[in-house]
Amino acid sequence: MTTDTLEKTESLRTGTDTLCYAGQWILKTDENSLDNIPDEFATPIHKIRTKTILNSANKLEYLSLILVYLITNKRNVLDCEYCYFVDRTFNRVSEMDFITGNIDDDKENLLIAEISCHYGDEMWNRSNEEVFSSCVKDLNEDNLLKKEDILAHEIIKMPSVYPIYRTDYKTHLEETKKYFFKINNFFSIGRQGQFYYGDSDQMIRFGFDTADKIIKQ
Ligand SMILES: Cc1cc2nc3c(=O)[nH]c(=O)nc-3n(C[C@H](O)[C@H](O)[C@H](O)COP(=O)(O)OP(=O)(O)OC[C@H]3O[C@@H](n4cnc5c(N)ncnc54)[C@H](O)[C@@H]3O)c2cc1C
């Protein structure tokens, strides 16, 4: 855990502070080290002794996402806002000109290729250059974009993005929520913190509602 997280955890345990947490539920304890998970991804609660909650929370898995940002001098690549793909490196590409309504010919265009994968799998472990080359190859083969059309690129990897709704997820979700509800000054919120595939407006509403709840406490 980072120093900042440790401080927050300490004040939470002594009851002097309230913590709103919007990340994935990854519970680490001294006994359960989950070595493959970096400490900064762990939920800032420690000393968990109940086996059921450990078992349940850690069974709620998320798909990871790699975002490949491509700044291009080519306009109108997709002829639409979003396009979905199968059998390609990416599963969706969005074109910002169509989303932002940019019609200024002097401005560059921005495309975002999305690659969903599992944390630590072969795709996740590829280097940024490998991911970029593979995307460019597919875009080129589909006659959408050539390498020389790309002025710059940036890659961001996010470990927990889309909740995976397995057949037994409801049982594990209920167990996990029951546990967290018992901690008065800990609020698990947001998409990851609720294991809920929601949109921005729903998460903002939930944030406001949680703030009201905290004020009333
Ligand atoms: C590719 C994509 C496209 C989307 N398009 C749309 C759309 O068009 N319209 C729409 O309404 N919604 C869209 N969504 C959904 C929307 O992005 C989410 O609903 C919204 O961002 C969720 O907000 P949040 O605050 O719950 O989580 P986030 O925005 O993910 O914020 C959580 C924050 O917590 C941080 N965090 C995580 N773990 C820890 C930790 N251990 N310690 C400290 N910080 C931590 C993260 O870094 C992050 O900054 C899209 C999502 C994706 C992935």
Structure description:
The protein is of the alpha+beta class and 217 residues long. It has a domain at 62-162: Polyamine Oxidase, Chain A, domain 2, CATH 3.90.660. It contains eight helices and seven strands; from the N terminus they run H-E-H-E-E-E-H-E-H-H-E-H-E-H-H. The strands form two sheets. The chain has a five-stranded antiparallel beta sheet. The chain has a two-stranded parallel ribbon with strand order 1-7. Helix 2 packs across helix 6. It is elongated, with a radius of gyration of 21 Å. The two termini are 28 Å apart. Bound molecules: flavin-adenine dinucleotide (FAD). Flavin-adenine dinucleotide is lined by residues 22-23, 40-41, 65, 114, 161, 190-191, 198-201, 203.
Q: Strand tally, please?
A: 7
Name the helix and strand elements from N-terminus to C-terminus, one letter apiece. HEHEEEHEHHEHEHH
Beta-strand percentage range: 15-25%
Please bin the fraction of helical residues. Answer: 25-40%
Oligomer: single chain
List the helices and strands and how they pair.
Elements: H1 3-13, E1 19-21, H2 51-57, E2 62-72, E3 82-84, E4 92-95, H3 96-100, E5 109-117, H4 122-125, H5 128-141, E6 150-163, H6 169-181, E7 186-188, H7 190-194, H8 200-216
Parallel strand pairs: 1-7
Antiparallel strand pairs: 2-5, 2-6, 3-4, 4-5
